[in-house]
Every structure is written in C-alpha cells, then in structure tokens.
Target: Malto-oligosyltrehalose synthase
Amino acid sequence: MIPSATYRIQFRNGMTFDRAAALVPYMKSLGISHLYASPIFTAASGSTHGYDVVDPDEIDPAIGGREGFDRMSAALRQAGIGLILDIVPNHMSTSLENRWWRDVIKNGQNSPYARYFDIDWSRPLTLPFLGDTFEAELEKGAITLARDPDDGLVFDYYETRYPLNPESVAGQEEALLANPDVDTLTRLHEAQSWRLMSWREAPKQLSWRRFFEITGLVGVRVEDEAVFDATHRLILSLVHSGVVDGLRIDHVDGLADPLGYLQRLRQAAGPDCYITVEKILAKGEQLPEEWPISGTTGYEFIASLAEVLVDDDRFDTLERIHDEVLGTTADKHNELRDAKGLMVDRNFEGEFTTLLNLAEQLAGENGVECDREALHHALRELLIAFPVYRTYGTPDGLTAADITLLHRVIGKVNAQETPPEPAALNLIIHILTGELTAESLEKAGLFRTRFQQLTGPLMAKSVEDTLFFRHNMGLALNEVGGDPNPRAFSLARFHQEMRIRLASQPDALLGTSTHDTKRGEDARARLYTLTEAPERWAESLARWRQMNQTHVRFLNDGTAPDAADTWMLYQALAGVWPATLTPEDRDGLLELEERFLGFVEKALREAKQRTDWIDSNESYESVVLKYARHLLSADNRLFLDDFSENLQPFVRAGLMNSLTQTVIKLTAPGVPDIYQGSEGLNFSLVDPDNRREPDFVALARDLQTAGPALFQDERHWRNGRVKQYVTATLLRLRQHYPTLFRYGDWLPLKVSGNREDNLIVYARVEENAALIVAVPRLVFDITAESLTSGYDPLWGDTTVALPESLAGRTWRDLFSAEETQLNETLELAGAAGCLKILLTVE
Model:
C-alpha cells in the first residue's frame, strides 16, 4: 500500500510506544496515513537515536518492548493508520551489549558470528576504544584483569569488559589473577585474536569496516544470506503479520551490493511492502531503474525547493558581500577538493590504504609496472574527483551507466595540471571494470566493493560534514543532498525536476525536515530570503558586528571569531531565532542560548579549520562560544533590540516561503513526510537539536480550532498555526483524491503580468480530477511590514492562461470554499488570500 502521507516519530529520549499510541488520534485528525518510526530494535544503552542496534531480533525494552509495540500497533490499526519502520542493515553497535560482537571478541574466527561483520581476518581484530595506547593505559592501571561470571577472564577498562580468548587462558586463570603485572598482561594481550588501541589509531589501523568514521558502529555483511536472515527475522515477521506496511532502508549505499540486498528484501517482504531508501542523489542523478523500491526518502526534494525560493537575480550580490566581509573570494571547486583530500589523507586513511594495498597486489599479479607512489596518486585523484556517492558494480564489473560515469571522471582527472601516470590510472580502471586475468577477478571484486563503499562516506564527510561548515555564504543551501557548487536557480528547472520526479519515483517520500537535516525547514525558508535583500542584510551585519566588537579577541592563530565564523554565527542565529521571541523574554533567550552554543561548537569542529573533533583548539572555541553567549545575553539589549527589529522583514518573508514550500510538498509527485512537529514551525539546528520533541499537546489543541480565520492574525503565522492548518487541509485532500496526487500529471501554467516572476503556478491533472496551485515566491518587498494587510500587491495584475483541458470547468477555492467558472484564464488580481488552490468540482 502506498501511503498518502507519513508522520515521522523519533523514539527514545522520552518517546515510547505508549506515548506514540496516545498521538494516534492527532495523526488521524491531521490526515496522516502512516506512522513512520525511527529504529525500534534494541540499541545500545542510552542510545538517543536507535541506529546503534545491538539486537535486531528484539524490540527495545527501553521504549516499551514488544508489549508496548503491540499496544501502539493495535491503536494504529484501529485508527486505520499504517506503520513504516526505519531499519539499519548496514551496521550494528560495537557496544559489548551486542552479543554477536562480544562473541567475536571472545572467540575470534571460531565465533559463529565471525563472518557476520565486515572484518579483515588477515590480522588481529582492532579495538580502538582506549583513550591512550594500550601500554600507557596499562602503566597507569586503567586496564586490569578480572573475572566475569559469563565470560571468564576479561580485561576491565573503566567497567568495559573485553573477554579473553579461552585458549589463551586455559588452565592459567588462578595464576594470572594472582600475578597480573604489566609484563604478564602485555603478553596476555598479545596472545589475543584482538588488539586494544587508542581511538586515535582507528583511521589508520582499523581491521573492520565502520559506518562512515564512527568506530561505535561496525559494518554488517548483510550480503551473506545467513546474516540477512539473522538480521531480518523479526523485521520480516512483522511485515508478514500485517503489522508493518513499509520499510525505510538506512544508508543503502553502505552495503556491498545494494541491488542484491533490495532484490532479496523485496522477495522476502512481498510485492505490497512499501520500501524506500536513504540515498543522496547528486544534481541530475537518478535512482537505478532496476531497484525494486518506491524511491528515496527525499533529500533531493529539499534541493529542488531552492530552485524557486532563492532569488537568482540577487544571489551574486550576496556572494559578493560575503567575499568582501571575509576579504577573500572562495574557490568552491578548490575548497571541495581540499575537503575531500583531507578526508582521504586523514579520516579515511585506513580505508584508502586497504585499497592501495589491493591495487599494488593486483599490479604485480597482472604484470603492470608502476610504483606505489604512482598508484597512490592515481587512486587519490580518482576518489577526489568522484562526483556522486557511488557506483553499483557487481562481482563481474561495473554497469554500462557506471562505466560512462567512470570515463567522465577519468577525463576530469587527466585534465589536471599533474595527471596520474597512465599505467597506474589504467590499472585502477581495469580493476573497477573487471578487465583483469581470471585469477585476479576475486581480488578485483573486493577492491571494487571497498571502493564503492568508500566513495559515499568520503563524499558525505567532505561535503555535508566539512565543506558545508566551512563555506557559510548561504546556510540554507548547505543541506543534506545540496549541491556544493550551486549553479543558477531556475523556476523552469524546478518544473522540469517535478516532471522527472513524477516519471521516475512518484511514490518516493517528500522530505523537508528530518533527523539528519542541518536545519529545520522553516529556518531554511527564512534564510533563503537573504538572497532577496542582500544589501539590507549586509548593513545589519556590519552594525551588529560593531556592537559586539569588544568581545572579539586576538589569539596567536588569528582573530576569534574570525570573519568566516562571524558571518556563520549571525546567519545561523537569524535562522534559528523563534518567530515569537522578543528581547524581553529572558527564559526564551536562555533556552535558545543552550541550543545555539551546542550548534556553534559542532559547527566549528566540523569545519576542521581552527579546531577539530580530533584535536580541539580550546582557546579558539572558548572565545567563540563566549562571543555567541554574549549575543544572547539578556543584558546585551542594544544588540538584541536591533537584531530582533531588523530581522522582522526576513521573518515575515520566511513565513510566506514556509507556506509556499509546504503547499508544494503536499501537492508534488510523491508521498509527503511530516517530520515530528514540522506541521508547525521548525527552526531547529543540526542534530541533536533537530531531534527535540515538539509540544504535541499544543499541536493537538491547536488543530481542533484551526480554520481560515487564522490567516488574518499574524500571531498565528508566527506560532505555526497557519502552517498547521494548511498542512491538515491538504493532507485531508490527498486522502480524498489519492489517484490525482499519485498519477496526476504535473502541468506548469503560463503566468503573465507584473508579478509573473513571483508566482509558482501549476496544475495536477488526472482524468476528470484536477487541482490548480498558485503560490508566491520572492515576496520580501511585499511582506516586509505585514503578513495580513491585504494581498493585492502579492498577486498584482497577473493572469494564468488555462489549457483547454482545464478550461470551462467549475472550481472551488480550497480555503474560501468559493466556487467559480473558469474559461481561458485565471485572474489572480484581487485574490482574497495568500494562496490560491482550486479544486475542480466536476
């Protein structure tokens, strides 16, 4: 069953199955067809997200266990609401609560789970969970020998107990416990099938595949049939019993064989199970047609919205102002190259070295003469130049589409000033395409798999978690799935993308906020408006910086905060500032300060310039955090009054943008996903801020009295009630006209008049059913003073030309209920509301 709309709930952090069950009446009233649950299987103790699974065959007792899950499921079924589960096939937690992982540590390759995890068994299993080297921790007494009732002798490290291999201590337990000196423990450690080491060594020496660069998550070999069965037993049982209607696949690009996995899952789950994948598509990239799924979770849709909400005519002006403030012009291509180079050389050094070693071995086996340095250069350049998250080669080689992509990348690599040696680059190409001797094909297949599993994390960490925290010109564009080198924005291209979406993945999710987005949808909607009034933003920014200049410090490594971080701080604050917050609200300022400071620390470290997660620069961080704290101090009234007052035009224009993107999401091809609380306003920052629980009690109360009168009171724009009302209205409409929204054509309509560039107008048409949507864009000049003082300036004298298929019908306005007969045109002049959504009543 294809959902009409999903509602994402983040379990844990206080959200349990019973609490979710209590929300079912609200979701039903809102117009939701399916609850979309974050991972529910047993995760590591204290998990805040559930992606660190320790037991995929158990529903987590921490959020209610199986009994609580059954109560929630019964409440959903009674209300006619389906259930979609977020599942995690790529990785599991390395917590010792994970009995499979613990057994592997205890028994090494003799463990029945030794092949469950993506481990290189040619060397000892590396356990990079120490604060210092093993020798240093041992010397200071942090590692001791103890007896565990379940595992026998263990190394105890701050109450984490690593079980020793039974054969290494057989018959020696009492003697070892009697004299556990440093030399004895050192020899005992060397006798294990594993090695404890500092967490700092993980990027270089890791013997197993991890999730991105997180050593708390170990890769699972789900391509193995036995592993698939073991990790999906409960999942499939819930699907087959009818309790679960759909599955969302986390990080599908991390798998060794995404197509093989999805085919196996589809066969096991059946044809009616709704399946989507978390997959980031580059601009213009499409999902592989052969994947047996409904589509992605919708990151690319967020990028599509920027096409119509960014002012392309003024974008260059904002960019120029940004460069003047920083005193430099950013070269985005070089910045991306630098970020990817850093990831290859440091964060993923171990994964890169594994590939390099395989390439060197294959060179020898195939008689290719090239030294290690040449191979290093060729492999590094190929990885850096890769423009998408991954290819989807099989054991036999790459697909035709992937070979075409590879040759495009090779052309880019060879066009550089210092291209790789042809022999080295050609060898890597032949490895990827499978053009080697028969004896080398297995090793080449391993190289291909590891290469494909590296390009995704490399892209994600380089772009989303490095470049997007370095290049802060337009924070609204620095989003998951965003283009690191944005080109011109275009209303025509937006319409084209919607038509492609209708043709390629009409049942995919449409997301605007998730647990992974860098900022909430309404923060982005507001920040888009900076491109409409860049000079006004620049004037305000200069004044604010001067007001707070006394809190700037000069350190040995430069000014703190520097110009780039200062730009980021004020823009981030402009995005997160609640629409209802006033400088007099001390409690509100304190709440915002706590959230904002967490973001600032993360942003500074993710940028990896003046400070880092690996080697933090406490001097710089403390000064910048103190500066940020001063910005929100209740005593800093001169700044706060000025900031709040001059932000208001951006706030109002952002609220109109918010409504526009909401209407588009709810009428576009696909399945709209409402992230918890985002039916109201979501001004969140990056995680963990975006995972805070909304006020569900207030949301349910507000929905009961929602109506068109809300549009006339700006307070209800600011508290989110207008957005919630529009959301509920359109969600309910989707339930009444499922085929219109699933199969209906996307028809851009021609607009003429003095506001023709400021309107987005299209129709969804399916046989006799039709919907006309007209929503505003680029309205900073219209909304600067008020959102409720009349809408004549919004529409101007614009006219919409109707094609023959839409002419001669009677239409009903969705919000005013007024009916009208339309022939060749729709006159928008004098429209009563800020939205014009017409449904044919024939």
